[in-house]
Write a structure and sequence with these properties.
Elements lengths: L8 E4 L4 H12 L4 E7 L23 H14 L3 E5 L1 H17 L6 H20 L4 E3 L5 E5 L4 E5 L17 H5 L1 E2 L7 H10 L21 H11 L9 E4 L5 E5 L22 E6 L4 E5 L5 E12 L10 E7 L7 E7 L4 E11 L6 E6 L2 E8 L1
Parallel strand pairs: 1-2, 1-4, 2-3, 4-7, 8-11
Antiparallel strand pairs: 5-6, 8-9, 10-11, 12-15, 12-17, 13-14, 13-16, 14-15, 16-17
Helix pairs in contact: 1-2, 1-6, 3-4
Length: 374
């Protein structure tokens, strides 16, 4: 995407190699660049609570990352600001994450963060400092299609780093003001560009974890967070049942399970057992053989359409659909059901379609749109 060199660009700097390389590349091309980092979560906040570590280092969006982002900004000679968004992050991402788990669903906080906070706040702050566009280190591509009069989001050159699954909620306005400079590059090239710019973090490992859960223990986080809020952990215990409804055990809480889970179910059986379904009303968890996870359809709500304006009631559209980040897109037919719902029928059964996760729809490399599995 061509950008005038006298147009200020705000770069969302996470402290990782990707966004740092973007800032260095744009600066080298002669653009006026300003670095922005959103401070989202106090990593020391729940330290010491039962099941939570005393200290956290090397986490996504941590103080270490802010330090690294600031150091890069100083090195390449650009203004740099940290924007405190902790209250909004808690309201829009952390609390919904907690509530979803307590309701027996499996949320995706990174998508919630992109949809409801990061791009919205970054674009607002960018305008306040005189920048009409932001650039990020996401691996994705966007362009304006004159024939459709729409901004199009597409998968990047480096398919192994594709982040479009987490970006399906971007609006036309947000896409029109966002640059993805890494869309045509592969990761080794990005690290080389960072090294060529003399950035010390050129080989910094990528962060894969959720920023506010420092040890990956969701159950411990839920308990610690509720305790901090002065709330009692609700009694979510119940029965483990077979698909036929036979009670074969007891569990301590539906928040400890996700569809497709095998380990940690809590009972022994001659053959492996998997979580097939979670029933929030009765607190029952259905377990069974792996083949019980296979399903051919889903319904999604809270839709956002990108390459099309929408899908009317009864309208059909052939797509490939992803039901989790690492899922290979599978052929499906979308049918509009009226209102803010869409039904997807897969050509072949898919494993572990999970309520609370995103379903993102593609045509070739273009993102048609997406929603949340109900």
């Amino acid at each position: 995407m061509a950008v005038e060199t006298n147009s200020t660009i705000a770069v969302a700097m996470s402290g990782g190699v990707d966004s740092s390389a973007v800032a260095a590349m744009l600066r080298a091309e002669g653009h006026p660049v300003v670095g922005l980092t959103l401070q989202l979560w106090n990593q020391r906040r729940l330290a010491g609570h039962e099941g939570m570590p005393e200290a956290v280092q090397g986490r996504c969006c941590s103080i270490d990352d802010v330090y690294d982002a600031r150091a890069v900004a100083e090195q390449i000679g650009i203004p740099y600001y940290v924007v405190n968004q902790q209250e909004r992050f808690e309201a829009d991402v952390v609390r919904p994450f907690v509530d979803e788990y307590l309701a027996g669903r499996t949320p995706i906080p990174c998508t919630l963060c992109n949809n409801h906070l990061k791009f919205d706040q970054l674009l607002l702050t960018a305008r306040q400092i005189g920048a009409e566009r932001i650039a990020t280190g996401h691996y994705a591509r966007n362009r304006y299609d004159e024939a459709r009069k729409r901004w199009i989001l597409s998968r990047p050159e480096d398919k192994s780093k594709d982040q479009t699954y987490f970006l399906f909620g971007l609006t036309q306005e947000q896409l029109s003001r966002t640059l993805f400079p890494l869309g045509e590059m592969v990761k080794p090239q990005v690290r080389q560009r960072a090294a060529d710019a003399g950035l010390a973090l050129a080989q910094k490992p990528d962060s894969q974890e959720i920023c506010f859960i420092p040890n990956g223990d969701y159950s411990a986080f839920l308990k610690a967070y509720l305790d901090e809020q002065g709330e009692e952990m609700p009694d979510l215990s119940g029965d483990l049942v077979t698909p036929a409804g036979e009670v074969i055990g007891h569990h301590q809480g539906i928040h400890s399970f996700t569809v497709g889970q095998r380990k940690g179910i809590g009972i022994s059986a001659p053959n492996p057992l998997y979580v097939l379904a979670i029933h929030p009303d009765s607190h029952q968890v259905t377990v069974g053989a792996d083949e019980g996870l296979m399903s051919r359809d889903l319904t999604a709500n809270r839709l956002n359409w990108i390459s099309i304006a929408g899908l009317g009631e009864g309208e059909e559209l052939r797509v490939t659909a992803k039901i989790r980040h690492r899922h290979t897109p599978a052929a499906a037919t979308l049918t509009g059901t009226g209102g803010d719902l869409v039904h997807a029928q897969f050509d072949e059964p898919q494993r572990a379609i999970t309520p609370g996760q995103s379903a993102v729809f593609y045509q070739d490399d273009e993102v048609v749109g997406g929603g949340w599995i109900v």
